[in-house]
Amino acid sequence: MSHQKDMLSVYAEDMSRSSDVAMQLPTGSGKTLVGLFIAEWRRRKFKDRVVYLCPTRQLVNQTVAQAEKQYGIDAVGFTGSHRDYSPGDVSDYRTGAKIAVTTYSSLFNASPFFSDPDAILLDDAHAAENYIAKMWSLEIPSAEGPLSSLHAALASVIKPYISGQSYARLTGDWQDQFDANWVDKLPTATVNKLAPQLIAALDANNNASKDIRFTWPLLRDHLHACHIYLSSREILIRPLVPPTWTHAPFHNAKQRVYMSATLGAGGDLERLTGRVKIARIEAPEDFRKAGVGRRFFVFPGLSLEPQACEKLRKQMQKYAGRSVVLTSNAIAADAIAKQFEDEDDFEIFSADDIETSKEEFVRSKKAAAIMAGRFDGIDFPNDECRLLCLDGLPKATNAQERFLMSKMGASALLNERMQTRVLQAAGRCTRALQDRSAVFVTGHELLDYLADDRNWRHFHPELQAELDFGVYQSKDAAPKDFMEAFKSFFDNDEGWDEANSEIVSDAATKVQNPYPAMDELEAVVRHEVAYQQAIWSQDFERALMEARAVTSKLTAPKLQGYRALWHYLAGSVSQMLSKNLDDSADKAAREQFAAAKDSAPSVPWLAQLTRGEASPAAAEKTPSEDVTVQVERLENVLLALGTASEHKFEKRAKLILDNLTAPKTFEEGQRQLGELLGFVTGNGKGDAAPDPWWLGAAIGIVFEDHADGKATTVFSPTKAKQAALHPDWMQENEPEAENLDIVSVIVTPCTTAGYGAKPALRKARYWSLDDFRSWARETIGIIRTLKTSLPPNGDLFWRMNAADELSNKGRTLETILVSLPIAADAMTIQSK
């Protein structure tokens, strides 16, 4: 095609001698042909040993088949163990007789077979971050397995330096579903302080798994240059930018060619690959403006409950005959496959089943290919598949990305990466201009991303129109409405012709806008890579200089969270340069930490760093910091309920208010309300245990409820004494309450207390039952208003506004307690 010829000409004339070249090759552009032509040209012209990298074995096999059968190019695939490679194939590669096609992991490992390639072509480079960074990423899962004892050992070392709540999440003691998304980072000063213990624990477990055996030696002497991320599922140790310059097979190649659907605006491709500068060849403008195929997006979650969505998906799969399902993990994949257990004539294919060839799947009349954790991969064009199901594909795929998005509010850094990842998944079955497929979307995170029109302005005009049409069709729709629309699309009838014309007409009115602040991000990426190079080699002075260069050039409001991160990194390097407390380097570190806090005042753990505390997570919290922790948790709660639709939130709100109305369910409603407000909640069991509690980072409330009482009931001294002792019970029995200021609150309709209750009532606050119920209704309204302005990603401005709103409306633990009187003053005490 003309655009392929044009790009090859530009490459041959201007870029053949450049060390790093990126080529924009979107879906439908014939990326494989362009890459293989370049590989073959270099093999012949320069006598290069050429390695063509693919993300998966499936794509290796697919690429070799295309090279040999479609293009007449000699290529040989290398997958599996080195020991199993054919001597003839090895000879063909080493002598330059054939192109080697292999996976990223075959090159990016501690002892690669491909040790000295001359040219490397990286297919789907936009998806390569996890494949490349994995070489320097040590993932230690919390689940039972060969690394569980190592996880326990590291958690034990870290425990004194994190809060009780964080330790509970780290070790799997989750209070609710929202803890599953928790992520944090161990401050660099704490990592350096604990380095001997961490190294000892990791050394002792060096043979626990292949990942430890090969990855840990690469990180061991560079722990100061790495970050330790803590999450509810794993501990991740890795550098911010993969140090690819230390890996000779990659770094010493004469040229690296990155073939990508996007050129990595804002320097993202450089961050992914650890390169200072990558030259770029854009796809011709006419090709970039053209859409690729037609997608009919179906968003059942905008109208239906989860069980109804699953039933509808199965109904569509049976009507379509063949379908492809991409889901986030193996558990979800197994659950979807299980739905077809009773369908004897329906075949289920896993990723392994179609690794070598998809022909058996394509020949099947009734089949589903269900693949877990796959965004890019094997294609299913034309009649091979007309139904693609995307189930819960996450926007962030590792703890570092989740930390940058959810903790630092630095989603602007990852915008294009997220978009490319999700849209590549949505395009698995539309690979040419005339291709078409339905895309059935489930999972709140993906639904919120694709159905939120605030994201659309950055998408291709035809995609904007497709999403607009899909959302309109999916709102207020019953299952039969969804099926009628799907059948019309699948059968390509007159109704779909009219719908398609509407989409085409609407697309003509749309404009694609670039993401904000991409120029600033592009300007700083060379300093980011240089910083990582310097700190990796312990050149702390240069690392500090490069970190300061980053902070000076990040000025856009959208980059506040990322600027805060780099002020923090500059402060951490200054700490490494400090020899004594209060010397110039130590003071410079505090200045940088203060600048980080100014840039991101809603990031909780930055506050203590300004006071020079090496372990901020374990330091004493202040009420103002308590609010930032509450808002962060509230944000996660609301995101989990979804931003694209209100029905999950309204269902939760109704449940809470209904529970608060009935005495038997009052305590559960109270706990749920605290959870919705962003507090850590629980409810005691046993005779001596308290009623629900709401915990923050510095303050906690523990309730003594009397929801079945009456205004005329006399509140007994026994209950008063129980309430007074509840804070002690919390400190003794709940690790998450450790070091918190716990206050007992009595919720009751009673206005009179028995003689002898007064000493105990001086240790508790009073909240009228009717007032609490009214307060709860108002609280739901406040949160409902906050939710309407919540972006689908972590946002510092929303957090600051939410913190002000909650404080001003008396919905923080501090303001709640200020508003409540001492129980002994609020109740009349009977005389003897």
Automatic annotation (TrEMBL):
Pfam families documented for this protein: DEAD, Helicase_C_2
Domain Helicase ATP-binding: 12-281
Matches recorded under InterPro entries: ATP-dep_Helicase_C, DEAD/DEAH_box_helicase_dom, Helicase_ATP-bd, P-loop_NTPase
GO molecular function: ATP binding; helicase activity; hydrolase activity, acting on acid anhydrides, in phosphorus-containing anhydrides; nucleic acid binding
Keywords per UniProt: ATP-binding, Helicase, Hydrolase, Nucleotide-binding
One record GO biological process: nucleobase-containing compound metabolic process
Protein name: Helicase C-terminal domain-containing protein
Organism: Albimonas pacifica
Lineage summary: Bacteria, Pseudomonadati, Pseudomonadota, Alphaproteobacteria, Rhodobacterales
